[in-house]
Amino acid sequence: MWFSINNANELDSPSLLIYKERVQKNIEQMISIAGSAERLFTHVKTNKMPEIVKMMLAAGITKFKCATIAEAEMVAIAGGKHALISHQLVGPKIERLVKLRQKYPDVFFASLIDSAEIADVHNDIFGQNKLVSDVFLDVNNGMNRSGHELNDQILDLYKKLSNLSHLKVHGLHVYDGHLRASDFNERKKECDAGFVDVKHFLEAIEAAGLLKPIVIAGGTPAFTSHALRDETYCSPGTCVLWDWGYGDKLSEQNFEYAALILTRVISKPKHGIITVDMGHKAVAAENPIDKRIRFLNLENYELLGQSEEHGVIAVKDWDSIKVGDVIYGVPYHVCPTVNLYDEAYIVENEEVKETWQVLGRKRKISI
Q1: What digits encode the pLDDT tens for the residues 43-94?
Q2: Topology (CATH) of 20-243
Q3: Residues 170, 135: contact at Cβ < 8 Å?
Q4: 40 and 283 in contact (C-beta within 8 Å)?
């Protein structure tokens, strides 16, 4: 079994396992799908580890997308020089972005804008600090989570962003994470349909005499669709570690599970029932109980319930299972699962010899 660890008896549980060789293969596969490392804005929200960012840098990936200021600082700590924070920063976060720029002056940090009012605030604060705020216009092409609608006002907003003295707009951010059809052809059709108005907007920008914007599009589900689109940057994230949810749904994406949860049997309270030390503090619990973890070395089971530190499982082979047995599981949703751990055990050649800090899970590192 590829996931078995020779020195598992030395590892505490529950714990996060990262299989380094598989991470490397997934990075190479991402680059292969994109056609080149240059086309990737890999999202670090999935892995949150400087060492994995360093692996991507070594493979030629130089641009990263982040969900938080802490993740952007983590990229800088790892040696990355180009990070887009994929949020519209408001309140104290604008000042934090200024401080981030000041601490790492050789790193390109950008953020998203979809509001004229917030653009003015960025312009004022960055102007007071004699800096220019690098931004991308966040475009809502159907997900309805953030971004400006593709209506008759969006061109005026782009013109405004282009004319503010302490703000520089570099292009468009178009996230269509709501398009998750299992069939690739159906998903591609939906992605292409959702991109028609984006193309019209790009034509309008150029017709207005403005510089041609770069476009960063999609996440992991749309990766294989947008990779076929000329002059579009792709921003997958989950691919680096992969998970059960996307593994079953996105069959055309041949990535490998590279992050597992190690748990142990801690009780057999009743015939047919075992309990493991994997409660909902150990694996992402935002989905129903049947979509949280898939055990790889356990058969004929059903996860019945979880509390904070316990997972209760119905099993058919109750007599063959012993208290203390190690069970390996792949999360349904790896991104928030990684965020539950301060550190990960790194598996290489079937052994763990080091741990990596999940540094990006912090809300604040130094800024």
Answers
A1: 999 999 999 999 999 999 999 999 999 999 999 999 999 999 999 999 999 9
A2: TIM Barrel (3.20.20)
A3: yes
A4: no
Question: What residue type is 298 in one-letter code?
Answer: L
Q: pLDDT tens for residues 138-147?
A: 999 999 999 9
Coil, helix or strand for 335? helix
Token readout for 58 is 């070594």
Task: Tell me the pLDDT tens digit for each residue of 171-190.
Answer: 999 999 999 999 999 999 99
Which bin fits 218, alpha (ψ -120 to 50), beta or left (φ > 0)? Answer: left
Q: What percent helix, strand, coil does the chain show, rounded to 5? A: 35, 25, 40
Q: Which residue, chain included where needed, has tokens 């991104």?
A: 335
Quote the CA–CA distance of 16 and 24 in Å, as a whole number. Answer: 17
CB-CB neighbours of 193 under 10 Å: 12
**pTM of the entire predicted model:** 0.97
Structure tokens at 313: 């499982």
Paired tokens of 196:
């028609």
Strand pairing class (311-315; 301-306): antiparallel
User: 362: which 2 tokens?
Assistant: 């912090």
Peptide bond into 14 cis (omega under 30): yes
Distance (Å, whole) CA 186 – CA 237: 22
At residue 148, the 3 state secondary structure works out as strand
Class of domain 8-14+255-361: mainly beta
Structure letter (DSSP) for residue 40: B
Which residue blocks in the chain are alpha helix, DSSP H?
A: 20-34, 50-58, 69-78, 92-103, 116-128, 154-163, 184-207, 223-226, 244-249, 334-338
- The dihedral through the CA atoms of 235, 59, 340, 104 has a sign that is negative
As a whole number of angstroms, the distance between CA 347 and CA 61 comes to 23
Query: For residues 327 and 264, is the Cβ–Cβ distance under 8 A?
Result: yes
Query: What are the residue ranges spanned by the domains of the chain?
Result: 8-14+255-361, 20-243
Please count the residues of the chain. Answer: 367
Q: Give the relative orientation of helices 92-103 and 69-78 as an angle to the nearest 10 degrees.
A: 10
